[in-house]
Each structure stands twice: as structure tokens, then as C-alpha cells.
Design brief:
The complex is a heterodimer of chains A (about 260) and B (about 270). Chain A is of the alpha/beta class and about 260 residues long. Helices cover about 35% and strands about 25% of the residues of chain A. Chain A is globular. Chain A starts with a helix and ends in a 19-residue tail after the last helix. Chain B is mainly α and about 270 residues long. Chain B is about 80% helix and about 0% strand. The termini of chain B are far apart. Chain B is built from 12 helices and no strands. Chain B is globular, with a radius of gyration of 18 Å. The chains are: A alpha/beta (about 260), B mainly alpha (about 270).
């Protein structure tokens, strides 16, 4: 009996090590309106997971559940093996950049430094904080513009700054909400390559309504519309997509390495 | 000239002391877009003035706890209730005013300087009030100096600040309390009803001249001092009510700065 419990504990520990984020049967309702229904999801280190789905399908809510900003009505969420409220500090959150106030009087450097604000809570930023912020800016290629006011950048540049801010906190997983929205297609390619590089060091979860752009770069893909369709792989069944979007969906196949649909 | 009178010296000192508070705190009010919340705190503070009359205590001293209480209520309501935030502010705004008027009506006798609390009368500032103002300034400057980085994080992006583990809500309540203290200082200068002018105009004008929050605070202190001393002098020259002269001077200068500032089109 005790031995069984021990074995279970060890198994749980192993699961914790592997799983960065785990959701078990999570449901969320806004009033009577179901937003997420019985969603289960495991995200592992070095995953680059794209979550696609129609607008209003619960993508942002799913991110907020992981971040502990929305409390699920039922189910269990764990982040790095613990409570999201405790462990969300290890998540690098990149919200939709179009939701910012572009008039805010803050420089690129100071935006990225706020990523260190918890480390430097109630004291001044140390040289280490400044260096970490600086190398985050360098990683996204925005160091030359560090003195600019945030609103005086293009959408793609702002997005990079917000990624740098998330990286400055030295996260174990990056969560991005519609990162490609409002960014030119040619800049997008560069942007996804940046994410591909970051994947070496952490897990990345990205939600988007743009199926094709996502499907080329991610290593795993899920589809969300209240229910989550996910097979821990890069394959989505045509039935899943149809069920999620509730209409037939044309997906351009990108050859074997990039395909979204199985070969029929 | 004007400075021969002791009350003019006090008035001048009061306008400089108030400028320091509203220059710094006004910047947060403007960039975080909490003008309506600040209006709610200042009007609700009138309840404190009524309480002062009723209890026979110096009203300004009663406004401090009353203003802080309404700031905390507004801050908590925002987080907990199912009411929308601006509805809740509207309710507290009006209830504070109504309570103040009710308490004054219940106080036996005549309330001589009631109008000065509503519309300000900087010429009535006493020496002891100046000491209170100086103390409030020191509190405000110290807290902002200590929490500058944290305030910047929560005013720019509250959600991100929450996620990375900053005690966002508590810091927000501290900021609202600082607004309440600033309101207390401004009540003497422009009155409960016109407080919002000095909390917004100097900061908004300075935003047009700089992209840096610290410089904005400095410029906004200068603007506030300039507006209130100019308004004070004009009100003395032409025998006008000081509070409304200060507000009108601020408004006119703000319009001029807005129309002439080079290439900036910031929507504040």
C-alpha cells in the first residue's frame, strides 16, 4: 500500500519534470456561456505548440487560465508542477501588442526592464537586471532602438520588444497571444524564426487564428473552439478542424515536414 | 505690492506646495487614464469636509482619512464587485458629495467658508495648513521615489505586472491613496470641484513636450506652479475668484501648447 503511494509519487515527480504546463478537464463559463469545455493539455519542454481556432473560440481565455488570471469552474491547472498563481512568474507572457497604449511615455529599454521588476521588487535595478534586459533586447534585434518611445515603432518591432520583456524575466515557457496580428508577412517569417531559436531553451505556446502561418513553423498543433482537439503532434484530422470551425476548412499542405493534415 | 500681505505669501507657498504634489501624481492620473477615478475620489472627499464641520474639527484634517477611505473603496470595488467600475465610481462620487451636504445641513449655525471648499480659496490658507501640505508633499515624493519602478510597471501594463509576480493590486491602492492626499492639497487651491483640472492639465501639457515619465513629472510641476501663481496674481489684480482664475489660466495655456507643439499628436 505505502509502496504503491511511493511509486505514484515518483511517477508524479517524473511527470512534473517533463510537463511544463498541464490542464486536466478544465472548463470555464462566463455566466451561462461555455468558453472552455473539458480541456486537457500537456505542454513539455522544447514544445513549440500552435493553438489555432476561430475568433471567440476561447484561445485568449485558455492563456489566461494558464496564467491564473481566469479561474476555471472545474478541472485542474498546474504550471511547473504547482499552482499557476505561485508559478506564473516563470511564464514569459506576450499579450496582444495592439492592446497597448502607444502614447505611454516609456522607452523600449524601460519596457524591457519591467520584465525584471519582480527580481528587483522594492529595490533599484542592479547591473545584472540591466544586463539581462540588454541581452534580451539584443536577442530580438532591438538593441539599436532602445531609446525610442514604444509607440514610435512598427507593429513587428513592438512585438519584438514585448518578447524581449518576457525574456528578461528568464522564463521557462513563452506564451504568445496572436503574435503575428498586424505584422507584414515578410516580417512574420523572421519573427517565427526567432521563436524557432528560442525553442531550444524553453517551451513556446502561441495562439493564433491564422492556420497556415502557424502550421509552417510550430512543432505541434492544436485546434480550439470550446473543446480542444490535440494529438500531441503536428497532425490535425480534417474532422477535428471541421468540428472546431464548424465548416469545412481548406488547409494548404506544405509537403511532408510541414503538413497539417495526414495523408489520406 | 501683493507680497506685502502675509496671506499672499501663504497663498504663493501653498500654490508651489500643491504644484509639487499634483505635478507628480497628475502624471500617473493622465498616463494610466484614471481621471474619472480621481474625480470620484475628490468629490467623495467632500464628505470629509462635511464631517469636519459636523464634528467641529478643521475640515482639511477630516478630508485626509475620508479621501483615503474613498480611494480604498473605489480600488476594492474595481476588483470585487459585479458592478462596472465607472458605475461604482459614479455612485461613490455622488454619495460622498451628498453626505457632505447632509452633515453640513445638520451642523447648527452657518457654514461660512463652504464655497471655498467647493471652488477653492487659496487666500485663506493658514500657516498650519502650509505645514500639513509640506508633510503631504514629503510623503508623496518619498513614496513615488521608492516605488517609481513598480508604479511604472503597473501603470504601463497591469496584467503583465500581475503575471510576473508584482503585488499589483496593493500598489494600485497605494497610488489611489496618493491621489487622495493630492486632492487634499488641491482642495485649498482650487476646491473639490475643480481639483481635476490641476490633476490633468499640467501633466497633459508636459506630455506634449517629452517622452520620458520623469521629465514629465518635472515639467508638470513647473506648469502647475506657473498656472497657479499666474492665476493667483491675476485674481489679485482684477479681484477675481482665485480657484477659477487658476483653472482658466491652465486651460488657456494648455490649449495653446496643444495647438502649437511640434508634430506631437498624443491623445491625452
Amino acid at each position: 500500500m505505502t509502496q504503491n503511494i511511493k511509486i505514484r509519487e515518483i511517477q508524479e515527480m517524473q511527470a512534473i519534470v517533463k510537463e511544463v504546463i498541464s490542464l486536466r478537464n478544465v472548463s470555464v463559463h462566463y455566466g451561462d456561456l461555455p468558453v472552455l469545455e473539458n480541456v486537457s493539455l500537456s505542454i513539455y519542454m522544447h514544445d513549440f505548440l500552435g493553438i489555432i481556432g476561430p475568433n471567440g473560440g476561447g484561445k485568449t481565455t485558455l492563456l489566461k487560465v494558464i496564467l491564473g488570471l481566469v479561474k476555471p469552474d472545474s478541472g485542474k491547472v498546474s504550471v511547473f508542477g504547482g499552482d499557476p498563481l505561485q508559478n506564473r512568474r516563470y511564464i514569459g507572457y506576450v499579450p496582444q501588442h495592439r492592446l497597448f497604449d502607444p502614447n505611454f511615455p516609456i522607452s523600449v529599454r524601460d519596457v524591457v526592464l519591467t520584465g525584471r521588476a519582480r527580481h528587483a521588487l522594492f529595490r533599484r535595478y542592479t547591473n545584472h537586471d540591466k544586463k539581462t534586459a540588454r541581452s534580451a533586447l539584443e536577442m530580438v534585434g532591438m538593441l539599436p532602438l532602445e531609446d525610442r518611445q514604444i509607440g514610435r515603432l512598427s507593429g513587428g518591432q513592438q512585438q519584438r520588444v514585448f518578447i524581449a520583456r518576457a525574456l528578461a524575466a528568464e522564463p521557462g515557457v513563452l506564451l504568445l497571444d496572436e503574435p503575428a496580428a498586424g505584422i507584414d508577412t515578410c516580417v512574420q517569417a523572421e519573427f517565427y524564426e526567432l521563436l524557432g531559436r528560442l525553442k531550444q531553451k524553453m517551451a513556446i505556446v502561441m495562439v493564433s487564428h491564422d492556420i497556415t502561418a502557424v502550421s509552417v513553423y510550430v512543432s505541434k498543433i492544436a485546434c480550439l473552439n470550446q473543446k480542444l482537439f490535440y494529438h500531441d503532434s503536428k497532425e490535425l484530422l480534417a474532422e477535428d478542424l471541421e468540428a472546431a470551425y464548424q465548416c469545412p476548412v481548406d488547409v494548404i499542405a506544405h509537403g511532408i515536414p510541414h503538413r497539417v493534415l495526414r495523408e489520406h | 505690492m501683493a507680497l506685502e500681505y502675509g496671506f499672499m505669501v501663504n497663498a504663493l507657498a501653498a500654490s508651489i506646495l500643491a504644484a509639487i504634489a499634483c505635478g507628480i501624481i497628475g502624471v500617473y492620473v493622465v498616463v494610466k487614464r484614471i481621471v474619472f477615478i480621481s474625480g470620484g475620489i475628490s468629490h467623495a472627499s467632500f464628505g470629509g469636509i462635511g464631517l469636519g464641520y459636523f464634528l467641529g474639527i478643521e475640515p482639511v484634517l477630516c478630508v485626509i482619512p475620508f479621501g483615503i477611505a474613498s480611494a480604498l473603496v473605489i480600488g476594492e470595488v474595481r476588483r470585487r464587485t459585479l458592478l462596472s467600475e465607472d458605475t461604482a465610481i459614479g455612485v461613490i462620487w455622488a454619495m460622498g458629495m451628498a453626505l457632505g451636504i447632509m452633515l453640513i445641513a445638520l451642523t447648527p449655525g452657518y457654514a461660512p467658508d463652504l464655497l471655498s471648499y467647493l471652488f477653492g480659496n487659496i487666500l485663506m490658507v493658514s500657516r498650519s495648513t502650509l505645514w500639513v501640505m509640506l508633510a503631504l508633499d514629503m510623503i508623496i515624493v518619498t513614496v513615488v521615489w521608492l516605488l517609481y519602478k513598480e508604479f511604472l510597471a503597473i501603470t504601463f501594463d497591469e496584467e503583465f505586472a500581475t503575471v510576473i509576480g508584482i503585488p499589483t493590486h496593493k500598489l494600485y491602492l497605494v497610488l489611489l491613496c496618493l491621489i487622495a492626499l493630492t486632492v487634499v492639497m488641491l482642495i485649498r487651491v482650487v476646491g473639490v470641484i475643480l481639483v481635476i483640472a490641476l490633476l490633468t492639465i499640467p501633466a497633459a501639457a508636459s506630455r506634449r513636450l517629452t517622452n520620458d515619465l520623469r521629465k514629465m513629472m518635472g515639467l508638470s510641476i513647473l506648469f502647475a506652479a506657473l498656472f497657479s501663481t499666474t492665476g493667483l496674481y491675476l485674481s489679485y489684480l482684477f479681484d477675481l475668484p482665485s480657484g477659477s482664475t487658476i483653472v482658466l489660466v491652465s486651460g488657456v495655456v494648455f490649449l495653446l501648447v496643444s495647438l502649437t507643439s511640434p508634430g506631437h499628436s498624443f491623445k491625452y
